[in-house]
Amino acid sequence: MKGLKKKRRIQVVALAAVALVMATGLIGYAMKDGINYFRAPSQIAENPPPPTETFRIGGLVEEGSLSRGQGKAVTFNVTDGGASVKVSYTGILPDLFEENQGMVGTGKLQDGVFIASEILAKHDETYMPREVVDALKEQGIYKDPNAGEASY
Questions:
Q1: How far apart, in whole angstroms, are the C-alpha atoms of residue 44 and residue 61?
Q2: Which of 41, 52, 89, 142 could form a disulfide with 83 if both were Cys (CB 3.0 to 4.6 A apart)?
Q3: Measured distance CA(145)–CA(131) in Å, rounded
Q4: pLDDT more than 70, % of the chain
């Protein structure tokens, strides 16, 4: 009788462990498409991701590169000072989107062109996404918009 209880307890613990491993695997599989890594244009030029990977790109919209096509089609280059990546987007751009301003886009790289599914731009005069600031600082071209202003 004692051996049967011990055997049953081991079976329950083993079954719980298997269920935990399966639940962890399912959660990881479900989150796979929800995780978008940030890449700077220099990182993309150095090591391009596969065309199936969705990721975020950020930097400054290169001056003179913004081109509006037929309808809602827009192309421009995004740079971090070390490299530039051509971006293609079909949709309505945010109101504050303009050249020499920070932006972050989500999409995929196909044949060297980043096909954006979403474009985000700064939401006020001094905001820039942290990832973009880090990428620009790494290239040595970041200018602090608050430089020279007193902070209280």
A1: 16
A2: 41
A3: 16
A4: 85
CA distance 104 to 97: 10
In the chain, the amino acid numbered 63 is E
- Please list, in sequence order, all residues whose beta carbon lies within 8 angstroms of the beta carbon of residue 76, skipping any fewer than 6 positions away: 61, 62, 65, 66, 67, 86, 87, 99
Model confidence at 147, in pLDDT bands (50, 70, 90)? low
Which is nearest to 106 in space by CA: 39, 30, 44? 39
CB contact set of 38 (below 8 Å; sequence gap of 6+)? 55, 56, 57, 58, 104, 131
Contact between residue 43 and residue 84 where contact means Cβ atoms under 8 Å apart? no
Check if the beta carbon of residue 121 is closer than 8 Å to that of residue 74: no
133 or 116: which carries more pLDDT confidence?
A: 116
Give every CB contact of residue 128 below 8 A, 6+ residues apart in sequence. 102, 122, 145
Q: What angle do CA 34, 39, 42 make, to 5 degrees?
A: 165
Please write the tens of the pLDDT for every residue from 64-98: 888 887 778 899 999 888 889 999 999 888 877 88
